[in-house]
Specification:
Blueprint lengths: L1 H17 L11 H19 L4 H14 L2 H4 L3 H5 L3 H20 L4 H23 L2 H11 L1
Helix pairs in contact: 1-2, 2-3, 2-7, 3-6
């Protein structure tokens, strides 16, 4: 899944640049790259802890929700206002709410993973919207 996601992002960025003449299509690579990193890490940890169902279940849930930003991004308002990540985080909060209702506490997986998700989301949005020079150099090397 992760290699396929990265390759698809690169191919579509090239298509957007060459065929559609889209500006800053290369800068958008930060979003799918972040998605694949977050998904890969969560799935990898879930596989590693597959014998611990409490950890495994929550990591699989977070990984699955992490891919929903593409679906939320299909709504123009959410996409244009960078609201697809907060919508995704609201889905993950459903898992937190479930833990609060059932166990009367927030599971440590959510407490450990949430800060990393928020930092990664913020960094990928910054790289996309600001398109700093160092990121332009990286995307230029990837796409050509």
């Amino acid at each position: 899944m992760v290699p396929l996601g990265v390759v698809t992002a690169i191919v579509m960025a090239r298509f957007d640049m060459v065929q559609l003449h889209a500006k800053d299509a290369d800068a958008f690579l930060s979003i799918p790259f972040y998605d694949m990193i977050a998904f890969g890490v969560c799935i990898g940890l879930a596989i590693y802890w597959r014998t611990k169902p409490e950890l495994h279940r929550r990591l699989m849930f977070i990984a699955t929700c992490g891919l929903m930003d593409a679906a939320f991004g299909r709504f123009a308002y959410l996409f244009d206002n960078n609201l697809f990540f907060p919508c995704l985080d609201l889905l993950i909060l459903l898992g937190v709410a479930r833990d609060l209702l059932m166990d009367r506490r927030v599971h440590k997986v959510y407490l450990y993973v949430a800060p990393f998700l928020i930092v990664g989301q913020s960094l990928s949005l910054y790289m996309w919207r600001s398109n700093p020079g160092w990121w332009q150099g990286i995307t230029r090397a990837i796409l050509w």
